[in-house]
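Figure caption, in words: inputs first, then the predicted bound structure.
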Amino acid sequence: MLFNLRDYFFGTDTLINTHYGLTNRVYLNNAATPLVSKPVIQELYKILPIYSYGIESNALSEELALKYNQVRDIVMNFIGADSSLDTVIYTSNTTTAINLLSQAYYESDPNQIILTTKMEHMANYLPFREKMKTVLVNLTSEGNVDMNDYTAKLEEYSGKIKLVAVTGASNITGIIPPFYDMAKMAHNHGAKILVDAVQLVQHKAFSMKPHDDASHIDFVTFDGHKFYTGQSGGVLVGDKAFLNQYKPLLYGGSITEFVSSSQIIYKPSPGRYEPGYPDFLGIISLGTSIRFIQELGIKNIEEWEQGLYLYLIRRLSQIPNLILYGDVYSNPRTPFVSFNLRGLSYRTLAQWLGYSYGIDIASGLNGANIYVQDLLGLTDEQAFSLYKSGEGCGITRASIGLFNSYTDIDRLVDALFSISSQLR
Ligand SMILES: Cc1ncc(COP(=O)(O)O)c(C=O)c1O
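Bound structure (pyridoxal-5'-phosphate present):
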């Protein structure tokens, strides 16, 4: 059982000015970025007195560098990586991690095909699409990956696909695609798999599984700001032998073993991919946040959040003219739901909730342009003409974090009931 979770976070009792006066803000925008946990900032208070440039030439710098590097083990342990076969590369965020991997794949063979899905955030699509031929797997009417289409595309392009890139959980509907099955099938066709886990690992237990398991996940990425740190600092974890072969994504200091005007020897991974000044505070915060989540117990978090989510769905289903997107009962899932009110634009709805009721919620495409267009039933032409007209298209999204309460859910649903009644 989890108690008093709100007390562990900054911003859970923040007041906000609304059209009806001052009220407690309700924060339901956790898939964008959640509130910051107090253990993270308490750890920073301990670290700041030894903060320095961090090169190991004195005891305090060594201590700082050690704490920073220890986060690699914390991450490995958290997602079941294998320290002898995997590397943990620090990146500024998930977007950079996927750009790094896409660059390595491009360098390995610019003519290969990357298979990804229509569910993805653009961070797991554009870095591939802009470099290599990228094929998209279609979706089911419930908003999940269509495994028949996946099978057909793996077969159609067998031997040419070297990487399947799939989200660990949709940032729009929370739906979790069957990525272990996808991994097994990808491996049968000689491809590796990347799971973009930035919306998954803070909500549900996840493992890369051992390398000799058929459903092993080859690459994983996630980051700190979506993990209650409020800071940049993320990771790309995966196949060390593969990642040791390629050039850095960014060039600069600290990535080489030797440089002269006639020769460059890059460090092995992770060093070659970590140019410039290390993000000591962001990365140490990520490690602290992972430990905090592990102490609470990811299973307990999952149970708590799913309870809140099911209550939210039950109540949302009673609101007149509310449209829910994707299969809201799809299981497994993370606690996010996207909706619209018939007759009201997604933008106006979010602003109404924000300025009148103090509810912080997302609206728009939220980076998953193709998925949202698909959920709205729009063709590319229709989406483009809405874009040209300035109206655009989108959904409104409520995403639960572990500090949310049943009162937060009631506040959202009551506001939606009220808005819906004013539209009739
Ligand atoms: C599923 C998914 N992948 C990737 C990203 C990009 O993450 P970041 O902006 O932290 O790099 C997001 C951001 O919302 C996301 O939801």
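The pocket of pyridoxal-5'-phosphate is lined by residues 93-95, 121, 123-124, 167, 171, 196, 198-199, 223, 225-226, 367 (CB under 6 Å).
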